[in-house]
Prior knowledge:
This protein is α/β, with parallel strands linked by helices. The chain has two domains: 3-134, no CATH class; 141-390, Metallo-dependent phosphatases (Purple Acid Phosphatase, chain A, domain 2), CATH 3.60.21. The chain contains nine helices and twelve strands. It has helices spanning 3-25, 34-54, 62-96, 108-137, 175-187, 207-213, 237-245, 291-295, 314-319; strands at 141-149, 160-164, 192-196, 223-226, 248-250, 254-260, 263-270, 303-308, 324-327, 353-357, 360-364, 382-390. α1 packs antiparallel against α2 (34-54), α1 crosses α3 and α3 packs across α4 (108-137). It starts with a helix and ends with a strand. The model has no long low-confidence stretch (mean pLDDT 91).
Amino acid sequence: MLLFPILFALFLGIQVLHRRLLEEQLPAATHRVLPWALIAFHLPLVAYMGLRYAGHADHGLGPLLGPPARAAFYFQALSILNLLFGHGAKLLYRLAHRRRGPGDPELPSRRAFLQGASTAGFAAVSVGAGFGWNQAYGDPQISRHELHWPDLHPGLEGLRILQLSDLHAGPLAGPKTLARWRQLAEREGAELVVLTGDLVEALPGEAEAFHEAFRNFPAPLGRFAILGNHDYFMDPRPLWEGLERQGWHCLENAHALVPRGGARLALLGIQDPQALNGRWRGIRFGPGPRPDLAARGIPEGLFRLCLAHRPTMWGFARRAGAHLTLAGHTHGGQVNLIPGVNFARMLGPHTEGLYEEGGQRLFVSRGLGVVGVPMRVAAPPELVVITLRRG
Length: 391
């Protein structure tokens, strides 16, 4: 319930500090209009946040306010960078002129130094953003893995599973991008296709581009999906219904038995905890993770493949007896600015790739889309193909 006022206070505080710094960087003639310009620029963001909080961002003024609100959100990021560069430059300037007395007049070079530091900082950020954009919207990495189990039923030998995750269809993943992902995914010729959540950025209507791009996607053994935390930011029922109409089977705390070669694969899905906190207001769209419900009625002895959006839900999947769990959510950190440091560690110990404990395995996909900013750094998008092997 407090998220909206907290974000509003945070954005306001950033802009109060930024205004003071801009007054030091810009000519005096701009100081009178500067606060009004900042207010006008951020009004769409405040209004859109209110509509999102109330659950009305997908109709009325919501779609019109979306683009300028996103521009204002990016300006918040630029404001933070300018504050870092600006105050860093001020510190360097003070160190270089530390012999000046506190009452001495400001040197004319100070404003020029601050302006130069800000310009250089933004130039560096622009170059980095270009590389990040190229990585985010270049062809995803095709990550192929063969996983072995000594007691795998011979009928499941060689089963190829395609995992799609974190597409975030919406403003930052439009029809052309989705169509390219579909083209690359279809080339893999997988028998079974699974979607491990975050189909959309936030609004149910954003799924239409996904449905158009992935219409009639070939999968001889079926297409199965769970929803992610972003899919619960609004009412998820249109997403469930749309997926089912397109031939996807939604496994929210449910399972399906997939026959192949005289064997059966038990495929189960665990609901995301965000179902308990829809719209960030505690609106309940489901019971949250219930591995007992997902596994109820699965015959003993079957290989169990579990879909769980967050890798932190691996414990639930293991309780459900999952031999292999597929997850996403982390984006592999998405923007890893420090070499060797994966920012997804803030979300938990399992950031990307394959993990194993006690014979049970977890694979965390970096996903395909982006969230927040249209870039990736040291975390390229990923299509995952897993082949089950006996031995």
